[in-house]
Please model this.
Amino acid sequence: MMESIHIPRLTRAPEQTETIQFNAAIADLETLTPVQGVLRVTHHGSFLEVSAQAETIITLTCDRCLQQYNYRLSIKPSELIWLDESVDEVSPILLDEDLETADLVEALSPQGYFDSETWLYEQLCLEIPQRQLCDAQCQGIEVPKSESAAKPHVDRRWAGLESLRNQLSDTN
Model:
């Protein structure tokens, strides 16, 4: 489990940077191996520069054949997080209010904490493939062909209706 970084403490760190090497499980992320890598957070006055290199192995289920397979999840994300005093102020976004571009930017309080484990969890989740295929040539689940598939089974209770339909088509 990685610790949160107190943002004011970063200003006193060498080169205003903290580097964390990790080899641990991340809460709520099911992996076969611990997530390992390095995370670097640099304080630039009005923003944080966060970058990481991490990898782990996860188990996915193929969308075509439903077989499970192992997938190497490897990331190298980089992000700027703005420091803004007004982040702590509670201002609910109204549903009928238009959003500004500035509302879509990640921001933290300069007196707060950067939760490195949550950030890393989010970055890993964003890299899990949406289309999960065990192999590019995966054909999917094979459906066995049988004689009954060629000749559909007719429920005998509908036989009277079927004969009426045949009589009507013969008269036309």
User: Anything to note?
Assistant: The chain has a mean pLDDT of 86.
